[in-house]
Amino acid sequence: MNKKLSRLPAIIMSLVILSGILPMLSASISAQFVTIPPSIFEISNIEITGVTEPVLGKLPTTKGIATTSPVNIVYKADGGTCWMERISPKVLFWSEKDPTKPFVAGMEYSIRVVVSNKEPFYFGEKLTATVNGKKASDVLGSSDVRNIFLHFSPLSAEIVNVDITGVTPPEAGKLPTVKGITTKTPGVTVDLEHTYWREDVDGYWNKKDVTKPFEPGKKYSIRIVVDRGGEYVFADKLTATVNGKTASKIDKQGTYSNIFFDFPPLAEKVKMIKQPPPWTKGSGKTASFTSSAEFKDFLSVNVDGKKINASNYEVKNGSTIVTFKAAFLETFSVGKHKVEVISKPGTAVGNLEILSKSAPVDSATESPDADTSAADTTEIDGSQTPEADNAESSSAQTEDGGGSGKKFGVTAVLGIAVIFIIILLVIIVVVLLLKKKK
Predict the structure, then answer these.
(1) Long-range contacts of residues 355-364, Cβ cutoff 8 Å, at least 24 apart
(2) Which DSSP string corresponds to 323-335?
(3) Please, is 46 exposed, middle or buried when counting C-beta atoms within 10 Å of its C-beta (0-12, 13-18, 19+)?
(4) pTM
(5) Helices (runs of H) and strands (runs of E) counted in the chain
(6) Residue partners of 341: CB distance under 8 A and separation at least 6
């Protein structure tokens, strides 16, 4: 009992402390909830980004549309975001644009972005919006869904630039063609029927004969005729490109325009104008090839399809002279090798023949066959008569036959002499033996 009474002051003190703290905690918590203004969850402005603006000839798209605001973008699959169109501002109602058809000139377009709020956020009464940083044309809707519109100005029907592609450049030996020439510029078509090639004749452009190929050294130009659609017009300062390069000249003629592009003169065909005679191993000589290309246009040398290191040859002007070093030539196998001197305008092709090293011929052991072969490869003077040829041939045959007879006689005499000496030696030996016995 005394123990319980001793704890009583401590219990009373604890109750007093708790009674002071609890009201303070309660007031603090209440204050936090009560002081949070309801407007903190109010959406007063929506920022829409990533809208691809309409371009003539391009298809409409809603890809890339995004927002950093606390809303969800509702896409077309859910009956939401889409492109709208109308013929002119005088028409009150907008109609939904067909996404499979491109934007055309003369029409007015608008993007409708549909959004819904994310809980616990809600749309404010004076909701505003921006699209690609521009103030939205309209913000319509109620409750938890809003339609945000941005109207674009009617697409201009003015053609500022025409981009021509697919022109086959002139090439020596090839026939001119207009096939494949086209353009992707909206409102423009290429009139191939009236498009043609021209050639420079004494400083004047004449229509090129399509049945005759392009020739080296000549200048050529193409005239491309383009038509515009009914609702389009060519700009006063119309520009054009042909295969990505600026057109040489543009001639506007009402509903069509002539676009000219001049090509540089065709380079003369590169050829090998000089090559060495057959090269013999062990000769120590060099071998030179001359290309018709200019020295400043030289690039490299190939042998049998492989690029040769520049240390193995020397190159100099006139037009382009390539000289192979003797040490390098020794590495070639016997036979013919394809040599290509490559320059910017083209490649000159030649051949290099490598011969094996000839063995020295001993005249004392030369055979009749060797004599005949030598006679066959001797160059014949142009003034020599057929009779002289026959006489010389007969003489050679006679000398050849006589020579064989003489060699046969000498061989027979040597054989008899050897036999005679052997018999003589035998007689001498026998005589000496008989003398010893006596």
Answers:
(1) 355/278, 355/279, 355/280, 355/281, 356/280, 356/281, 357/280, 357/281, 357/282, 358/280
(2) EE-HHHHTTSPSE
(3) buried
(4) 0.42
(5) 4, 29
(6) 272, 289, 291, 293, 298, 301, 320, 322, 347, 348, 350
**CB neighbourhood size of 347 (10 A):** 16
Token pair 């002081």 is found at: 35
DSSP type of residue 103: B
| Rounded average pLDDT over 174-199 | 95
Ramachandran region of residue 141, left (φ > 0), alpha (ψ -120 to 50) or beta?
A: left
Per the CB < 8 A criterion, the answer to whether 376 and 382 are in contact is: no
What DSSP assignment string belongs to 263-332?
EPPPPPPP-EEE-PPPEETTS---EEEEESS-GGGEEEEEETTEEPPGGGEEEEETTEEEEE-HHHHTTS
Q: What six digits make up the tokens of 222?
A: 């193409």
Phi/psi at 60 (5° precision): -70, 150
CA distances (Å), origin 435, targets 252, 280, 432: 138, 71, 5
Cβ–Cβ < 8 Å for 237, 315: no
pLDDT tens for residues 201-211? Answer: 999 999 999 99
User: Residue 149's closest CA among 119, 200, 112, 122?
Assistant: 112
What percent of the chain clears pLDDT 90, i.e. is strictly above it?
56
- d(Cα 341, Cα 270) in Å, to the nearest integer? 10
How far is the CA of 356 from the CAs of 283, 295, 353, in angstroms?
Answer: 10, 33, 10
3-class SS of residue 69: coil
User: Tell me, what's the pLDDT at 426?
Assistant: 76
What class does CATH assign to 272-355? mainly beta
| φ/ψ bin of 271: left (φ > 0), alpha (ψ from -120 to 50), beta (otherwise) | beta
Dump pLDDT digits (tens) for 265-300: 987 788 999 999 999 999 999 999 999 999 999 999
Residue range 303-315, pLDDT digits in tens? 999 999 999 999 9
Residue ranges of domains in the chain? 41-152, 158-263, 272-355
pLDDT of residue 433: 75
The 10s digit of each residue's pLDDT in 353-371 is 999 987 454 443 333 333 3
Owner of token pair 């109308």: 86
Of 89-98, 227-236, 242-251, 396-405, the one with minimum mean pLDDT is: 396-405
DSSP run (H or E) holding 130 = strand 122-131
Place of tokens 């030289």: 298
